[in-house]
Structure to design on (724 residues):
């Protein structure tokens, strides 16, 4: 191991194996003062999976169109005529806005009475598109083809064209200022908790000297990307706005979008829809909790070991009565908002340009008759938002509740309590929040599986690519491979640099995603199939007691290396898994001055260790490989499997000294052997799926194994020649 004598080097990158994973330097020095013999470990890799921060409510507007200008827009921008088209880029959104304006002009020029509803929706769509400056992060357009026509050209060719479209404009879901500040604070805190630090600068010094390899990947949602940028700002102590940080550090490559976004996996969507249908049946029953048998309770919310679900069901009491209370409370809220609109109508206020609302004291606020609302929302729009939720939650004709709207009710009431506390509706909002919170605690976890088998199956399918990537990250870090290192120090100038540990590197892989992936990943970790779970009994209890995965929920995996153990000893590499349920503070109703002074609003729960003691990297890799094998699905979008096994490329580090060269050769041989074993495991996993595309994948993998074997033989011959 490298000797750390320079105070500017990474002394803190070593941990005592006998102390807590989050122990500080004082704990280590205390152990040595008492004469307790300890050996130390080196931090090799940190992998974090984090949910996005606090956001505005998500909203959408739907409508069907057959007008030729909409069809032409679709054909000009789509690549596959029968696939959905998603638009977020600025140029395409501006072009669509002009299309909507032209459609409104044509309808206004004709008989508006016949097209009253369509004209209303078109104007609403125009207002949404014009509300903010188009940047590609705050709105999204989706065009779904519903019917097609075929025609024959003069050359005899058959041409298929779309004849009817469903338009869906989505907006909202933007990261709030509160969410941004929470993410910055979390990044600042995790820098100290996850990485060792000393007077020389800790992880910041490693980062500035190209010995910290940081990669940040996100889905393509704007709130997720902004959360990642804000977290990086706090973690690396950067200054300025988050947008330049987003552009330079945050990556949303194609692979990471599929890896961190569940959309596009139709097989998983079928499973999720089936769970939602079952929830709609179970959670509408008019039955008292005290009168249910154990079997009836487990039929509603799953096995009794899921303590948070059974606790929430007990708080609900009677599911149908609680749903009626939620619907009635929303009705009371809408009546109060309508009354405020009727009393405060005035034509004296100064209107914001573009009709987005009425001006308030701040640029991001809007007001109607003196009432300021968050993010430019007017009181009329807020009222319409709640009316829409009320209508969708309950169908009076069929007397059926839509349980999929319960999470929306919970998100909306939480948002208004946090960001619109000046409406004077504290009592109504608090009552609605208490009702919706308990119901959401019952509904949301069941959307990703009701039984243990369903939770495991859906989790393995949804997180298949993410699990494979985490497994790959651990393998690369364990073999100390340079294949994924973006920048490295030029060792030719090592004598000129005041750094003793030139070869020391720490990898950080930060993945930012949505709530669905956190639920799925934790279900995979909690519920094993054949290989035992890497979680301890205490860790299982921590997860069972977590009623909600709030904003900025974190799952952290850290890899340590004990350099005193032999290369072939599995205990040389130790893994730790940590968990935090995120920003769990209740949205207490406070005035603006109190809110700014309340530091708890920016805090998240502390990380807790949930893995077993002495968990080895080999155990984690074996567990993940089994889940990856079970969760492999066919991707309906391109007809190929979503799972793409990554092959470890082998590079050995050349050192200047004789001892360093001999040690590098031994490490190179060990790396070759481990990579070969990894390839054999991949081939075994592929062997179980040999129908159709399975044969093609197996053939390609076997070819990769042969090529890798040839490369291994070449490296071994070069190593032997170097020794002679």
């Amino acid at each position: 191991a490298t000797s750390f004598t320079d105070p500017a080097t990474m002394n803190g990158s070593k941990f005592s194996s006998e102390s807590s994973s989050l122990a500080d330097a004082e704990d280590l020095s205390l152990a040595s003062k008492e004469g307790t013999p300890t050996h130390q470990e080196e931090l090799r890799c940190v992998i974090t999976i984090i949910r996005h921060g606090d956001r505005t409510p998500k909203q959408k507007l739907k409508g069907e169109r057959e007008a030729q200008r909409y069809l032409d827009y679709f054909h000009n921008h789509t690549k596959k005529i029968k696939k959905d088209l998603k638009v977020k880029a600025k140029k395409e959104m501006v072009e669509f806005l002009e299309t909507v304006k032209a459609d409104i002009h044509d309808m206004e020029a004709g008989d508006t009475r016949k097209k009253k509803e369509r004209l209303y929706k078109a104007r609403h769509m125009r207002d949404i598109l014009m509300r903010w400056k188009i940047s590609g992060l705050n709105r999204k357009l989706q065009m779904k083809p519903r019917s097609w026509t075929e025609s024959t050209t003069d050359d005899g060719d058959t041409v298929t064209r779309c004849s009817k479209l469903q338009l869906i404009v989505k907006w909202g879901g933007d990261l709030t200022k509160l969410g941004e500040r929470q993410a910055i604070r979390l990044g600042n805190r995790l820098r100290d908790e996850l990485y060792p630090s000393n007077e020389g600068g800790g992880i910041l010094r490693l980062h500035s000297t190209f010995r910290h390899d940081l990669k940040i990947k996100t889905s393509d949602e704007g709130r997720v990307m902004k959360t990642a940028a804000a977290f990086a700002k706090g973690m690396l102590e950067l200054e300025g706005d988050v947008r330049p940080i987003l552009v330079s550090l945050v990556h949303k490559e194609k692979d990471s979008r599929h890896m961190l976004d569940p959309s596009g996996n139709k097989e998983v969507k079928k499973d999720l829809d089936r769970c939602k249908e079952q929830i709609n049946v179970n959670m509408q029953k008019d039955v008292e909790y005290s009168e249910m048998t154990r079997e009836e309770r487990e039929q509603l919310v799953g096995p009794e070991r899921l303590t948070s679900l059974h606790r929430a069901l007990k708080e609900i009491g009677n599911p149908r009565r609680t749903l009626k209370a939620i619907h009635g409370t929303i009705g009371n809220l809408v009546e109060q908002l309508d009354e405020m609109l009727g009393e405060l109508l005035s034509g004296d206020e100064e209107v914001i340009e573009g009709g987005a609302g009425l001006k308030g004291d701040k640029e991001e606020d809007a007001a109607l008759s003196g009432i300021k609302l968050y993010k430019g929302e007017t009181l009329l729009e807020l009222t319409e938002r709640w009316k829409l939720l009320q209508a969708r939650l309950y169908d009076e004709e069929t007397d059926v509740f839509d349980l999929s709207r319960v999470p929306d009710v919970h998100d909306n009431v939480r948002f208004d309590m946090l960001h619109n506390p000046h409406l004077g509706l504290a009592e109504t909002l608090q009552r609605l929040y208490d009702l919706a919170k308990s119901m959401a605690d019952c509904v949301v976890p069941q959307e990703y599986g009701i039984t243990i088998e369903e939770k495991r199956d859906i989790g393995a399918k949804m997180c298949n690519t993410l699990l494979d990537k985490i497994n790959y990250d651990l393998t690369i870090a364990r073999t100390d491979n340079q294949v994924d290192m973006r920048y490295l120090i030029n060792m030719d100038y090592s004598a000129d640099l005041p750094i003793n540990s030139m070869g020391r590197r720490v990898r950080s892989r930060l993945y930012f995603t949505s709530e669905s992936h956190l639920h799925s990943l934790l279900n995979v970790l909690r519920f094993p199939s054949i290989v035992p779970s890497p979680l301890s009994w205490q860790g299982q209890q921590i997860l069972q007691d977590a009623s909600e995965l709030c904003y900025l929920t974190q799952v952290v995996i850290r890899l340590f290396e004990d350099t005193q153990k032999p290369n072939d000893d599995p205990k040389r590499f130790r893994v730790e898994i940590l968990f935090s349920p995120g920003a769990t503070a209740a949205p207490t109703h406070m005035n603006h001055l109190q809110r700014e002074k309340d530091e708890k609003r920016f805090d998240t729960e502390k990380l807790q260790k949930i893995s077993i003691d002495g968990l080895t990297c080999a155990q984690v890799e074996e567990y993940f490989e089994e889940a990856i094998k079970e969760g492999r699905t066919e991707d309906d979008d391109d007809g190929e499997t979503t799972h793409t096994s990554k092959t470890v490329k082998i590079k050995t580090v050349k050192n200047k000294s004789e001892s360093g060269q001999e040690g590098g050769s031994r490490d190179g041989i060990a790396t070759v052997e481990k990579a070969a074993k990894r390839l054999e495991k991949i081939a075994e996993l592929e062997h179980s799926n040999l129908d159709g595309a399975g044969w093609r994948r197996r053939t390609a993998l076997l070819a990769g194994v042969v090529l890798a074997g040839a490369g291994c033989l070449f490296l071994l011959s070069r190593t032997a020649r170097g020794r002679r």
Notes: The chain is about 45% helix and 15% strand. The first strand starts at residue 14 and ends at 16. The longest helix spans residues 693-723. Residues 1-39, 346-370, 636-672, 681-695 have pLDDT under 50 and may be disordered.
